[in-house]
Every structure is written in structure tokens, then in C-alpha cells.
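Tutorial sheet, problem 5. The two components below are modelled jointly, 355 residues in total.
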Amino acid sequence: MRRVDRRIRVGLAALLLAGLAACSSSQPDAPTAFGGPFELTAPDGHTVGSASLKGKPYAIFFGYTRCPDVCPTTLARMARLRKQLGPDGGKFAIVFVSVDPEHDKPEDLGRYVALFGTPVIGLTGDKEHLAQAVKNFGVFYQRVPQPGGDYTIDHTASVYLMDRDGTFVSTIDHDESDQMALAKLKRLIG
Amino acid sequence: MKAFHHAIVASSLSLAIAAPLLARDYVSGAITVAHPWARKTAQGQPTGGGFMVITNKGKADDRLIGGTTPIAAEVQIHTVSMDGGIMRMRRLVDGLPIAAGASVELRPGSYHLMFIGLKAPLQAGTTVPVTLQFQRAGQVRVEFAVQSMTANPGMPAMDRDHAPR
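Model answer (C-alpha cells):
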């Protein structure tokens, strides 16, 4: 098993940040082909997707409920940013899509998203529906088998910001400052 | 993994002892464990994360090699790395080295403990007893303070949603 040296990790993070800075300065929020039609299942069994989300901007993130780390950190951060926006915080929806339908049933997602103290739409779907959503957003995920038959999931950690028409606007990345993320959200709902 | 929360839910609830929230430091020989905290989990969620700062004030390198807790089937040490925007989590099978004189922070997005096979949800405002196993220092018993989901990571004492009474 690979052990990650702290210095290498810090170095990689610095490189990544430098890369991101370079990208954002040359192409500010250049819209790409993220997004597109998708249909998933909400905790109450209803179908929720690109069509029903239209009319309000949304921030969409892919993960799984057994992820102890990046997923709750990201969702808690989105909840915090929404709070910081005050009354405007309600002007966008937060959507969490589980890429672990084998474990996360719609009702599991309902219980999970309720932990964040702010409305979060928890979605999942069967293989085909999930594959469509994942493909549209260019999300990478891969199950990593663990000893004993269990697995964890490597996955894209970016939050995708979509405008009220469902058009991709920008991402909020894991390493980005709250200040920058807040500016992007303000632009999204502005 | 779904089978975890079939049994023992009622009995293990009593294991999460209500206690003051301020996470404290634990010292055992050369090893100091500061601010151990964990995140609240949802009903049916079989895993939880644990975070802390481990300092080795000794002259010899040590290594966190595992742990046990009555609230979960297993305690594992994991690391998270970001690779081109993709989160990759891996188990540190050989443990986490704590060099002589060094501090290692276990925090969201980096090294962390995974409580696997939770017997009951972790409730904010309670503590979770964990016996950490070090190669050199042996066992160190600590209590992880459970924070709400929206608690500021790394600032366990600042949980406004569940202020100490």
C-alpha cells in the first residue's frame, strides 16, 4: 500500500493550486460541456433531475454517504457558505448525488443530507440513470476494494455550479478558499 | 456491510457517554493526543471519521498502528489524497509514522481514523472511547468528542449547535 509522504503531498497541492490559478487566469470560468439532461431519485421516491431543478441555480456534488471525510466536509462547507449569504442563501439549491447506489438507498440519502442543518437534495439512481448523470458532469468514480469484501470509492471532489437554466457556470474546488467560493456563489445567484 | 446496524443498537447507545464537549489532550509517555474529535453520523451510516493531532515528544520514532473502540467493529487509519480533482482514500495498512519530535495532524481531507461498522450513530455532544495502539508507546486511551456535521473542521471546541450546558 502506498504511503503518502507529507512533503510530497504538500508539494502536489501547491502544484495543483498553481495549475488551477493558471487555468482560472487564462480562462475565467470558460463554460464547458458539463451538465445535460439527467433523472435521479429523491428520498421520497420522486424523480428529480435537470428538468425539475430548472428555474433555480444549483450546486451539485457527487459522493457517497460512507465517505467519512471529503463528502461531509464539502457539504458542511456548502451549508456554511449558504449561511454566510444570509437571505440570498436560499436562492440556490444544494444537490448531493450518491455514486454508491448499492449501499445508499434513497431513504439513506434522506437521513444523511438531513445532518447538515440546511436543505440538501439527496439523489441517487439505478445504474443507467446514474451513468447518465455521471457522464454529463464528467464525474470520475471508481470502487476500490478493501480487504473483507468492503470497498471505498475514489471520486471527483468538485462542486458544479449550474445556473437556473441548468447550464454549467463554474466549479468550486476542494482546495479553493471560502472567499473565492462565496464570490462564485454570489455570481451564480446574482 | 449493511448487516452492521441490525443488532446491538440499543445496547451500544449507552456506550456513548454524555460528557463536556471541550476536547482535551491525552498524554501517555512520549505521545500526546490533542483534540480528538469525530463527526456525527446518520442512522444507518456504517462508518465515521476521527481526527486529532498526535505529537511524539520522545527521542525515538513511533507509529500509530491501529486502535479499538466498543462503538465500531474496526478502527482503521486512512489517508486522503487529491489527484487532479479526484479524491482518493486509502488505508494505511502499515500505520501512520509519528517521527521523534514531530506532530501529525489527522484532519478532514488528510489522515484520519475510520470507525468501521458503527453499532449506533455517533451523536453530537457525546464522546467515543477509543484505545489507540502505538508501536512503541503501546495503548493510549482517548475520548473523541462528537461534533455536529457543520462544526468547523479542526476546531472541535467551536461547535455552536451543541454548546456545553
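Marking note: Residues 146 and 152 of chain A are 7 Å apart (CA to CA). Full credit if you identified this.
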